[in-house]
Structures are given as C-alpha cells and as structure tokens.
Design a protein that fits this description.
about 500 residues; two-stranded antiparallel ribbon; 5 strands; about 60% helix; globular
C-alpha cells in the first residue's frame, strides 16, 4: 500500500472508531442502561454521530480519498475500499450534519418510548416519537431528489442499488406462489401437532442450550457474547467484538433457540471479515456504522440460513434432538424426532413476525413494505397506523391483533429509524436458498455433516465465499460471483415446495 492509501486508512479508522463508540452506546441502551439515562444517551449518540459525519464528508477525507484513488491498483482490495468509501461519501454529502444530529437524538428517545409503549400496549404513547421519525425520513428522501419513489433513498441505505420497483416485482411473484401454498397447507392444518412445544421450558436451560449450539456453529465467544434485550439484534464494534442479544419465551420452545441461531448467523459473518477490511466505515441506514457487509439482504441471508436451512432441518436435529431431550426429558422425552421436526416447521398464520414459520414469514414482510410505502408517499399518517396494520394483517394472514403490542408495536425498526429495512429479510430468504444450492454442489455430503454435528465445511465455505469479502462487492455482484446468476426466487420456491410438500403430503 502507498502513502496516500495509508493516510486514507488512518482517517477512515478515526471515523470507524466514532461509529463503533456509537454502536457501543446503542448496545448498552438496549441491554444494561438504566431507563433514566435515555435523554443523556440520546445526546451522546447525536454528538458522536455528527462528529463522524462531519469528518467523513470533510475536505481532508475527500482529499485523502482522491489521492488514494490515483495510487491504488484498480484490481486490488484497496481499489474496492476506495470505491465503497467514494459511494458512501457521495451519499453522505447530500445529508446535512444538523439532520444527522437531530435524527440520532430523535431515534434514541423514540427507542425508549417504544419500549414503554410496547410494555403497556399503548400506541398513543409512541405516536409523537414516530411522527418525528417520519418527518425526518421524509426530509431525508428529499435530499436525494429526483427519485422514482421516495422509498428509494431509504431502501438504498440497506440494499445498495435496489429500487422500490424491483422489490415490488419480487414480492408480487412470491405472493402469487406463496399464498396458494399456504392455502393448500391450511387445508391439512391438523396434519401437524405442535402442542408439546407450547408448555413451560426452563429459561436458563433454553438459554444455555442455545449458547452451546451457536458455539458449535462457529460463533467465537472470545470475540462475542449474548445478552438479553427487548428485541434480538446483532451489533459489531469491530470484527473481534461482535455481540448478539436474545429474549426468552418460557412457555414456547422455539423463539429463543432460533433467535440465537439467527443472530449468530449475523455475528459469524462479521467475525469472518478479512483483516484488511476492518476499521473501514460504511453507510448503513442513515448513519455511519462499524459493521461491514455487502448489504443487509446478504447479511440476512446468513442469519436466515442458520435459523432455517440449518436450524429447522431434519439433519440438524438428528445431531441435537437427543441432547434436547436430555435437557427437557418431561416435555420431549416421549416425542419422536419426526414429530419434533414437523412441529418446529408447522405452518400457521401468526401475529408475531419473529415467530412466523417459513411459509408465511414473507407475508409479514410484504405487509410492512406496503405500509412503509404509504407512509413515505404521504398517504398514511402515524395516527392511522394501528388501523392500517390490523387491516393489512387481516388481508395477508387472516388475523386480528388483540392489542398494539402484538400488532403495530411488535417491531423495533421504526423506533430505530430503520424504514426501508424490512424488505431485506425477504431478500435474505431468497439469497440464502440461492447460496445453499451452490453450497450443496460444492459440499456434496453437507447434509450428512450437519447430521453429525459438523459445521466446519459449511462455515468455511461461507467464510471463503461471503464473509471475508465484507463490503468489498456490490450485493448482486457478489451473488453472481458465487452462484453464477443474479437474484432469483426459484431456489427459494423450490425449497419451500419440497420441504412443506413432504411435511404436509402435498407432493
């Protein structure tokens, strides 16, 4: 590396450190911070976020970027780093520092209001905060005029290069295929019994079992930890300090287990990024972040893969079900592996997204996407959200929430300002299956390895093909490099129809 690139790395490292400090303060707010600290914490995060933003868009950073670009080999990793930084600096320069400071202060207070409103199941207590968040998001979109849709600038923060029209096209295709599948399954709803999953399961035992599983998968606890939070998440301060959180449902086996595997999928990605790509800040959402990834869709592919393609597979439980029976002998000792496997894959429309089965999960995302579009187009006011939510979930899933906590208040995303994020979950589902088909070709005895509790080749393949590259490639460029084709829903649809056709006798 040359002198100019070294200078760019030094300045980038300073921005990265400020973003890492923000991430640490946010992690603490959601885990251990006393409730009374909210106002002070909001100010701290707003101040550091503004400092990072101003340094990132400043003349010194810009000059270092131009000098480094002239120096690096166009085919090198350094050139890729410069390309990503240029893209993000170009976007960031369109956003005033005053907006960044106000946004970060607003969402930190909105988070605390959301926690309290959710606990009380009272949307009205959260509404004023959400109205401020929406006002800021509408203002943010205007910084990027002209656009096809006011949703485009927000979506691009999470899925670079993706347009709202493209997401809608994908979602329309999925809905045409998934709704008939769910309807066919509904006609055989009694074919699967999961009643034994809905009984008391000791909190500590569930937690410890999940910790052992994700340790086996490859989550390095020398460089990570799991704590409790209202809403599970993963955060990275650098590749050697990647933390996850989870929550416990003591009366339902599944959410805690699969929540751990989901967040571990994110964390294993961040822990696997190449050393030379560490300490490079990137834009994520509306602010700089210390997490590195090609996109949130790619990131979600890793979490959804671990949660579903691994965690809900028959092969995985061939290795782990005997251990789970030992942990919960009275609940599961007399339940066969086949019955357990079918139960954890039961299809049943549900109110809570993070507890949804694979066949209905995308419908949860689609209804949120449609609501966010209406919010950004100015066709839906915050005051009307509970009614709109209830109407949409009735339309998509045939359900009516009994309260706000199980309806419009269930997700953290709007409090955190993550409007535009939800589509990445469905994109992650599609990408996960596309990668999995390639993985099975490259590791032909993959299922047998998983059934033996061996994950080295699985995670090794992901490290080599996905993780190590971090944000070096555009998401669709990375996907095509690994699989030979762009984004397609066909592997995902093949997976769903094959798996649930077998479970429900539809084939």
């Amino acid at each position: 590396m040359g002198e100019n690139f070294d200078k760019l790395r030094k300045i980038s490292g300073t921005v990265f450190d400020l973003a890492s400090a923000v991430s640490l303060l946010e992690w603490d707010q959601q885990t251990y911070m006393p409730p009374g600290g909210s106002e002070g914490r909001a100010s701290q995060i707003a101040t550091l976020s503004r400092m990072a933003h101003e340094l990132f868009i400043g003349d010194e950073f810009g000059a270092a970027l131009e000098a480094a670009e002239a120096e690096v080999d166009p085919d090198s990793d350094e050139a890729r780093i410069v390309w990503r930084l240029k893209r993000d600096v170009h976007k960031s320069r369109r956003v005033p520092a005053d907006w960044v400071e106000e946004h970060e202060h607003t969402v930190r207070l909105a988070f605390n209001a959301w926690v309290n409103a959710r606990a009380a199941s009272d949307f009205s207590a959260f509404r004023p905060h959400l109205e401020k968040v929406l006002r800021l998001k509408l203002a943010y979109a205007e910084f990027f005029q002209p656009y096809e849709s006011p949703y485009d600038p927000l979506l691009d923060n999470y899925e670079p290069g993706m347009k709202t029209s493209s997401v809608k096209q994908v979602f329309d295709q999925l809905r045409r295929e998934q709704v008939p599948l769910v309807e066919a399954i509904a006609e055989r709803a009694d074919a699967v019994d999961d009643s034994f999953l809905h009984q008391p399961f000791d909190d500590r035992t569930q937690w410890d079992f999940g910790l052992q599983v994700i340790r086996d998968l490859g989550y390095d606890f020398e460089r990570g930890r799991q704590d409790k939070a209202v809403h599970p998440f993963c955060t990275s301060f650098n590749k050697n300090d990647v933390r996850i959180t989870n929550r416990i449902n003591g009366n339902f086996f599944g959410p805690t287990m699969f929540g751990s595997m989901h967040e571990a999928g994110h964390a294993i990605y961040d822990q696997g990024i190449a050393n030379n790509l560490d300490r490079i800040p990137i834009m994520s959402g509306s602010s700089l972040t210390s997490s590195h990834h090609a996109s949130h869709g790619i990131h979600e592919s890793q979490s959804r893969m671990m949660e579903n393609l691994v965690g809900r597979s028959r092969a995985f439980w061939q290795a782990y079900y005997p251990r789970l029976q030992q942990a919960f002998p009275s609940q599961l000792g007399q339940v066969s592996l086949d019955s357990f496997y079918r139960a954890i894959n039961r299809v049943r429309p549900s109110l809570i997204r993070v507890e949804a089965d694979e066949a209905t999960y995308n419908l949860h995302i689609m209804l949120r996407f449609e609501i966010e579009l209406e919010l950004m187009r100015g066709n839906l006011a915050a005051a009307d959200l509970p009614e709109a939510w209830n109407s949409k979930i009735q339309e998509f899933l045939g359900l009516t929430p009994p309260n706000d906590a199980q309806g419009v208040l269930q997700d953290i995303h709007w409090a955190d300002g993550y409007i535009g994020y939800f589509p990445t979950y469905t994109l992650g589902n599609l990408i996960a299956c596309q990668l999995w088909e390639q993985l099975e070709q490259d590791v032909p005895n993959l299922s047998a390895q998983i059934a033996a509790g061996k994950f080295e080749n699985l995670v090794g393949w992901l490290h080599e093909n996905i993780h190590q590259h971090g944000a070096k490639f555009q998401p669709m460029e990375l996907l095509k490099h690994v699989t030979g084709q762009g984004l397609t829903a066909q592997p995902y649809l093949r997976y769903l129809k094959s798996k649930y056709g077998e479970i429900y006798g539809l084939n």
